[in-house]
Amino acid sequence: MNELILIKPSCREKGKEKRLTEIVEESMKGFKYEKINTVEEFEMTDLKNKKILFAISLGESGINLELYSMLKKIRLDNNIFEGSVAGIIVDGDSDLFTKSVARDLVFCANSSGCTFLGKPLVEATKSLQNFNIIAKNMDTDNYQAYINSGKNLVQRLVSFKRTKREKPNILVLHSSNRQKSNSLVLWSKIKEKLTDCEVKEISLENGEILDCIGCPYNTCLHFGEKGKCVYGGVIVEKVYPAILKCDALVMICPNYNDALGANLAAFVNRLTALFRNNDFSEKSLFAIIVSGYSGGDIVAQQLISGINMNKAFILPAKFALIETANNPNSILKIKGIEEKVCSFAENIIKAL
Question: What are the CA-CA distances from residue 191 to residues 336, 342, 347 (Å)?
């Protein structure tokens, strides 16, 4: 997998592309790559087993029409990126839309076979205010911090390589009731297939799971250095040690009002303290998402932004099994569910 491809959908607001073009040219300097600007070029290119950088220019509206033409092709071919690994740069002309467009693209490309390395997104809002802290840490201005972040992303993309484990350690987190949960029923079927893995399950259903209140940076850093958080509790006592040990995290996520359940959301927020002092870039994220009605893709995108983009977990291809089931155990009546279970279990084993 040596070929590097730049997918940079042409933006009709040409004046808005200047900053992104400068960043991409600096980031790709020294590398040979093929460039794709139009949906026609996209259709004619073999995108399997490649290293791919998506570079998206957004006008003030947050819409790039060429990108949406490409997204249509991506959504209709669930293997178009098979074996490929990607990162993404999004440059906006407002202080909105960059993250939402990025995670939509990552979700769709991942569903079509693309792996994303940990922290795959470099985003720039119009003001570049989102680089304030990064620039301070780099002892430079926001624009140079943007350039440096782009260079770092491309370097990590080019050098990205998975390390195979003989007996992967898998941590499973849930906060569901076993008697009623279609999500846990689905997981139990998948677990049966993971015979060569060490699996640890932790329930966050019982007990008080306090959410993050945004401690000052130095406070969070201080507790994180000791593998702790100011709140303590099950997150610190059980979850933190299991996170450090695991090779992969499986999130069992019933869809509550198109959002993660409160305890799982609190876990994602509380993971920050541990992340500040530990490298998660060799760990993988998987998810099982069951909706009573619809919206599983929204929950998947929350996991992408919270754990892949912000906490640096790898997003293996087709990371989420997303189904719809309402009444208890009705998940087992879905047509083809056994084949889906086997395929998802094989995907986990293949990725690890």
Answer: 17, 10, 13
Other C-beta atoms lying within 10 Å of the C-beta of residue 142: 17
Separation between Cα atoms, residue 237 and residue 322, nearest integer Å: 30
Tokens of 221: 């850093």
Q: Which regions of 188-247 does DSSP assign to beta strands (E)?
A: 198-203
- The tens digit of pLDDT for each residue in 59-113 reads 888 999 999 999 999 999 999 999 999 999 999 999 999 999 999 999 999 999 9
Measured between alpha carbons, how far is 215 from 192 in angstroms, rounded to an integer? 41
CB-CB contact of 101 with 58 (8 Å): yes
Which domains, ranges and CATH numbers included, belong to the chain?
A: 4-159 (3.40.50.360), 169-351 (3.40.50.360)
For residue 34, how many C-alpha atoms fall within 13 Å in the half-sphere facing its CB? 15
Q: What is the pTM of this model?
A: 0.94
Consecutive H or E run containing 147: helix 142-159
**Residue-wise pLDDT tens digits, 111-136:** 999 999 999 999 999 999 999 999 99
Name which of 179, 180, 189, 153 is nearest 348 in CA terms.
Answer: 189
- Of the candidates 351, 343, 260, the one whose C-alpha atom is nearest the C-alpha of residue 313 is 351
Amino acid identity, position 161: K
Length of the chain: 352
| Whole-angstrom distance, CA of residue 195 vs CA of residue 212 | 36
- In tens, the pLDDT along 334-349 reads 999 999 999 999 999 9
